[in-house]
Amino acid sequence: MIVETISAIITFHGEGLLANKTLFGLERVRKFTEVNNITVELVIVLDAADYETTQAVKTNPIVRKGDKILEVFNRDLGDSRNSGIAVATGSYIGIFDGDDYYSENWLTSAFKVVKDKEGAVIVHPEFTISFGVAHAVGDSFDMDDRKDYSLVNCFSINPWTSCSFGKKTIYTNYPYCRTDSKDTGFGYEDWHWNIELLSHGIRHVTAKETALFYRRKAVSMLTSMASSGVVIRPSEFFNRTKNWQSGFNRVFEE
């Protein structure tokens, strides 16, 4: 008996045939999750996607009748995630990128973390395993494990990946901001979103023994932002100086 529904939001634009590999990888995650009586709805967002990517997605055999494919022209990752979230029917949201892979237990483990934790949390994979032009393994900062971590570090680094999971209400209450880096000079939508949640008392935690397999490319959206000198958009977090100190309290001062 199905007890819950997770909506997996996947964004594509110019991945080409790599989109097939991503979708097959997500089907592996979905099948593992459904064994645990949780259904997974794919919400695929094609943002100004090229022909090869669009055809790869629309003809992929793992796309089911109940899945959704949106064709938008936001030309912005944050806006496209918001578009997918808006039509999602699940009570829980998972954010996925169109050229990465994920351990099969990711959604099942993240779902359990949300269920077991007190208060509002966003879950990230415990490990990020980079491949492609760079190879590395790193672990993610879990706020419940490291209460001595000074959040002032969030001004210089983004401690968490874009891969995230949580209740849909969090994503609808705190949507991603559009960047328009070339026009505004602002970028790093995930970094901004992560610290904006902090300012509203939402903790970032990890699901143990889960992994994001992150494709590193010579040229990417991230490298383009870094090379062009964009900065993070202003956030309410900047105004909460009492919350930058070591020792994160479960509820931030509003």
For the secondary structure, the number of strands is: 11
- Estimated radius of gyration: 18 Å
What is the multimeric organization of the chains shown? single chain
Number of domains: 1
* Biggest sheet character: 5 strands, mixed
> Uncertain runs with pLDDT below 50, 5 residues or more?
249-254
Summarize the structure.
The chain is of the alpha/beta class. Helices cover 30% and strands 28% of the residues.
Give a description of the structure.
- The protein has 254 residues and is α/β, with parallel strands linked by helices.
- The chain has one domain (4-243): Spore Coat Polysaccharide Biosynthesis Protein SpsA, Chain A (Alpha-Beta Complex), CATH 3.90.550.10.
- It has eight helices and eleven strands.
- It has helices spanning 18-34, 51-58, 77-87, 106-116, 168-173, 181-184, 189-198, 221-228, and strands spanning 4-12, 38-47, 68-72, 92-97, 101-102, 121-132, 136-139, 164-167, 186-187, 203-216, 231-232.
- A five-stranded mixed beta sheet has the order 3-2-1-4-8, sandwiched between helices. A four-stranded mixed beta sheet has the order 5-10-6-7. Strands 9-11 form a two-stranded parallel ribbon.
- Helix 1 (18-34) links the parallel strand 1 and strand 2.
- The radius of gyration is 18 Å and the shape is globular.
- The N and C termini lie far apart (41 Å).
- Mean pLDDT is 87; it is low at 249-254.
